[in-house]
Amino acid sequence: MSDKAVNLSLVKLVIIIATTVYSFTSMSNAFYLMSYAAIPWYILAGILFFIPYALIVSEYTGNFKNQSGGIYSWIVNSTSPRVAFMTVFLWYSSYTIWMASLFMKFWIPLSILFFGEDRTTSSRLVLGIPQIRWLGLGSLVAVALVALLISRGFTTISHFMLLGGVFILILFGIAAISNLFVLIHNNFTFSQPFQGMHSLLAAQNPTYQGLFGNLGFFIFGITAFGGLDTVASLVDKTGTGKNKFPKAILIATFVIAGTYLSGIFLWGASANWHTLFANKDVSLGNAMYFLMQNLGEQVGQISGLSADKAALVGQVYLRITGLALFWAYVGLLVTISYAPLKAIIEGTPKSYWPKALTRKNKHNIVRNAVWVQAVLIIGLVLLVSFGNAKATSLYNNLTLMTNVSRSIPYLIVALSFPLFRRKRSTYELLTESQVPWASGTVSVSIVAAIIFTVIQPITQARYLDSFFLIIGPIAFSLIALWLYRQFQKKISANLAGISNHRS
């Protein structure tokens, strides 16, 4: 059965787009880092980065809804094949290296679901084997399962994207309704006192006070809005939905912004910042679990349950969070394992790659490329879980090298947009006078994020980290440039061979 496209309704598209970008973890971490003071910075990140970037991506998808290259198709029609290939290579490489760490984190919500705590970092031995190696073996199985799902076509991919999105919406709904329930019961008195502008401008966390601290959180806000281009790369697979895709992006933009802002604000109904986060075990990796467990306990208490039963309700909320985030991880991993690969293999000229990589199965998926990518990710997972300290350090340095590299493709998309509008455009949302504003604000935001990302380790005397952050995009760009030249030589040699054969 052919699986060239899946007809998705506007509602399903909005759910998939919104929940691919929106992160329940980022929303919870924003409250953990800044409390109510996170809200103005999220608004600023939305105005300066997310909304104009969404408009740019919406225009690109409207104009290239039938092309499978995603970012490559956008850039090649705006600048040149060389710039487009270097951009998509940076984009793909960053995602591939990041995926290895995501597969290692994949088991954390499952551990929360079954045990009520994160046991993935435990140093205990299981059957005489260190926990990290069991985690690595489990991650290898997860990589293979995701590759198998992708190989079954976009119908399967879209089902898991939608499933993960629905679970995240349910989780947000539980958190929002429960916080409102607590707020109403407490006569609209917040657990974290809200004092108007003072609460919005003064961060509770001393680390995020002052100009440098606030700039750091602004970058965090921009990061929370990332990922729109990834899901937009799948527009050609959405059947009749491709005509609704630009509209779905715009609707999802406001859904994402609304869930972030309302969610951060409502956490204050049940969570007193100083009381809850006085626990030194709370971190960016688990703040959402503490918030949800505390919320469940409060719901139990105000419902008249005993302390033990209220604690049980807290455990239920905690494990629901683990369940929802597990399926969200599945949806995310399926998406980012497929979309960047599709862009670099299907978007670029077929002559660049060996025929085996571009060959498609009956589900219209480049199955061999999917499994080659899986082997690459498995290699990175093995490096982390079975390697020595030097191997782990190598992977950490590779990750640092991709941090800035991942931002550069977004910058090139924004910078190339005015060039695209001058060349060709049949679907337009922005007027000619608005194009420089959209391109400029997005570009300035990303440049600010890159500069801060590089400088921040220097302020903490982590000079080697800054070195890898800088060298990363340079190294990946040089590799991309070398590959591009090899591809061009290959094409020239093939053309010369055809010419000689005809003569």
TrEMBL record:
Record carries keyword DNA damage: no
Cross-referenced Gene3D superfamilies: Amino acid/polyamine transporter I
Membrane topology: Multi-pass membrane protein
Record's subcellular location: Cell membrane
Transmembrane domains' residue ranges: 6-24, 31-51, 97-116, 131-150, 162-184, 215-236, 248-269, 326-345, 365-387, 407-423, 435-455, 467-484
Keywords: Cell membrane, Membrane, Transmembrane, Transmembrane helix, Transport
Keyword Disulfide bond: no
Stated name of the protein: Glutamate/gamma-aminobutyrate family transporter YjeM
Species assigned in the record: Sporolactobacillus shoreicorticis
Lineage: Bacteria, Bacillati, Bacillota, Bacilli, Bacillales
